[in-house]
Design brief:
The chain has 249 residues and is an alpha/beta fold. Helices cover 35% and strands 26% of the residues. It contains 8 helices and 10 strands. The longest helix has 20 residues. Bound molecules: adenosine-5'-triphosphate. This is ABC transporter domain-containing protein. Belongs to the ABC transporter superfamily.
Length: 249
């Protein structure tokens, strides 16, 4: 966690953020406050609304209600903040016949970004060689996705399940990469189902279920009474499901 967590504005703030599909609120009145400088973990069951929330923050999905800000600029004007946001969401897309370096060069050219830092970016995510993207392993694809997210030197980095499907060594490497991004002074918001990873890496937690916020705050606050994140997480959802069953019976 960076010193910027103390007394600075939020990197992300939302109030009443809502998205409905087919009349159902999949994100339902979400109030988020992610302090600048933290690694924030967004966790919740399948279908809880994590990706939809991230897509709204990135201007990819228009909220049906609510407002907020990203890096101090209004959520309703993504063009004002997206130059300072890097993201990897739902499987990065790259040209299959080009190497990682060439892919990043193309992205830099398209985005009007300086390509000078590309070799250093590839080194920091641990990508070497000039294999074409189509021959990359899943772990290599995720690494390249993160390098691409860092191309524009963003203040905020949003990663949707970056360790999904990786082997244990890949998961450990991803942990190091996320920490190093934060050590640079960047705020990171990462969604994940890997609770032990989240517990190790994230100093801020957001737990959502059915589109609603169940917890938000420092990881240390949730864990203060003892137990690990998995226990706390499962007990939140056991309580929710028991209440739901109680209502329907
Ligand atoms: N474009 C869409 N049209 C209709 N329904 C959608 C759309 N996008 C998402 N949904 C629905 O919204 C709900 C939340 O989806 P979302 O992908 O945000 O969940 P998630 O928490 O990211 O889940 P997972 O952990 O499985 O990735 C799901 O029920 C999903 O089917």
């Amino acid at each position: 966690m960076r010193a910027t967590m103390r007394g600075m504005t939020n990197a992300i703030r939302t109030r009443g953020l809502t998205k409905r599909y087919g009349g159902r609120a999949v994100v339902d009145g979400l109030d988020l406050d992610v302090p600048a400088g933290v690694v924030a973990g967004l966790i919740g069951p399948n279908g809880a609304g994590k990706t939809t929330t991230l897509r709204m923050l990135l201007g990819l999905v228009r909220p049906d209600a609510g407002d907020g800000s990203v890096n101090g600029a209004p959520l309703g004007r993504p063009a004002a903040y997206l130059p300072w946001v890097g993201a990897m969401i739902e499987g990065p897309a790259f040209y299959p016949g080009l190497s990682g370096a060439r892919n990043l060069a193309v992205q830099a050219a398209l985005g009007g970004l300086d390509p000078a830092g590309i070799p250093a970016l590839l080194a920091r995510v641990g990508l070497t060689g000039d294999k074409p993207f189509q021959r990359y392993s899943l772990g290599m694809k995720q690494r390249l996705g993160i390098a691409a997210a860092l191309l524009g030197d963003p203040a905020l980095v949003i990663l949707d399940e970056p360790a999904n499907g990786l082997d244990p060594a890949g998961i450990r490497d991803m942990r190091g990469i996320v920490r190093s991004i934060n050590d640079d002074g960047r705020t990171v918001l990462v969604s994940s189902h890997l609770l032990s990873e989240v517990q190790q890496v994230c100093d801020w937690l957001i737990v959502i279920g059915d589109g609603r916020r169940l917890f938000q705050g420092p990881t240390s606050e949730l864990l203060a009474g003892g137990g690990d994140l998995e226990e706390h997480y499962l007990s939140m959802f056991t309580a929710t499901f028991t209440a739901t069953e109680g209502r329907s019976s």
